[in-house]
Every structure is written in C-alpha cells, then in structure tokens.
Amino acid sequence: MTLQWTAVALFLYAEIAVNLILCIPFISAKRWRLVFSWRIWSWLSPYWNKCFFTMIMVLIVLFLDAVREVHKYSGPEPMHDAQVNPNVYDHVHMKLFRAQRNLYISGFSLFLWLIMRRIVTLLNQVAVTLENSAELQAQTDSAVKAAKQHQDDNMMLKQALLDEEKSMSTKNQQLKLEVEKLASQVKAAEETVRKSHAEVEAMRRQAKGLAQEYDRLLTEHHQLQNPQSAADKKDQ
C-alpha cells in the first residue's frame, strides 16, 4: 500500500472511531455542545470549512482514481493478457484487488466524512433545541403560574365584589325598611296633623257659634233692659 492510501486508510479508521464516539448514547447533545464550545474549536472554526471542502476534493479525486484503476484492470485487454500469460494473471488480479480496495477505502472515507459533518451539525441543533425547549418550558411554567395567580386574584376580586354586593344589598334593604318606617311615621304624622286641623276647625266653628250666641244673648239682654228703663221713667 502506497503512502497516500495508507494515509487514507488511517483517515478512514479515525473517522470510524470518531463517528462511534459521537454515536455513544449516554453522552447527551448538551455535553457535546459543551465540548464543541471549547476555545480550540473557536480557534479552528475559520479553517474548518476550508479543511472540510479540501478533504472532500481530495477524497473525490482518490475515489475517481480508484474507479479508473478498477475499470483499467477489469477491462477485456488485461484479462486477455492474463489468460495468454499465466505469470501476468496473478499480477493483474493483484492490481485489480488493490484498485477495488482503494475504491472502498476512498468511498467509505468520503461517505463517513460527510456523515461525521452531519452528525456534528445535528448534535448542535439538538442541543440548541433542548436549550430552547427548556427556556420555553420555563416561560410556559412562568406563564401558567402568572395565569394561575391572575385567576386567583380574579376569584378573590369576584368574591370581594360578591361580598360587597351582598353588603350593599343588606344596606339597601335596611335603608328601604327605614324609608318605609319613616314614610309610615310621616303618614301617621300627617294623619295626626289632619286630625289636629279638623279639631282646630271644629273648635273655631264652636267658638264662632259661641260668640254668635253670646252676641244674641247680649242683644236680648239689652233689649230686656231697655223696656224696663222706659217703664220706670213713665212711673216717675
């Protein structure tokens, strides 16, 4: 195996190990987000995209080269030469085996490189989603608590209004009873005043009648006195 394919194979083994570590179930996305927030990653982040696309280009070139090698040694001409010369048969199949091995190595390296990038992105997204959901849950709990508090306040206010309404109703009934009592007292007083006026009027008429009777009797008295005086004068 040449140096470049040895490096690609080591890169493939490293990708397999990293993907397996990233897929460990008991390491949560929040912990991976903490790992990804280390200062070294922020220092490497400006070069990450360049490195990512560079590795894609290198792996694509190696993959295409492996495809070319497989197509080269699996064609009819090398097979014909291998059948003609038995010594060449082993050499051709060895070259074909290496080309196919290199094809698998470069193909899986490219595939796992893309998968690893996607796994890291999904872990970050899941961590952000969990943080947002936690914040939303806290906001929801706060809103529910505030709504419950407002509901309790409304119930207390409603109860206070009902109590006040009952108190006002009781006061209104008392005032109504007092008004009715005062009205009955006023009516009785009016009746008393009316009776008093009637009695005064009767006494006034009686006094007037007595005065008239007194005047009549006084007149009769004078008339009786006047004839007697005239008789005395005649006797003298």
From TrEMBL:
Membrane topology: Multi-pass membrane protein
Domain BAP29/BAP31 transmembrane intervals: 1-134
Residues passing through the membrane, by range: 7-27, 47-67, 103-120
This protein's record includes keyword Transmembrane helix: yes
This protein's record includes keyword Transmembrane: yes
GO biological process, one term: apoptotic process
One of the record's GO cellular component terms: endoplasmic reticulum membrane
Pfam families per record: Bap31, Bap31_Bap29_C
Compartment list: Endoplasmic reticulum membrane
Alphabetized UniProt keyword annotations: Apoptosis, Coiled coil, Endoplasmic reticulum, ER-Golgi transport, Membrane, Protein transport, Transmembrane, Transmembrane helix, Transport
Stretches for region Disordered: 216-236
Predominant location category: endoplasmic reticulum
Residues of the Bap31/Bap29 cytoplasmic coiled-coil domain: 178-236
UniProt family annotation: Belongs to the BCAP29/BCAP31 family.
Function: May play a role in anterograde transport of membrane proteins from the endoplasmic reticulum to the Golgi.
Protein's UniProt name: Endoplasmic reticulum transmembrane protein
Species annotation: Dicentrarchus labrax
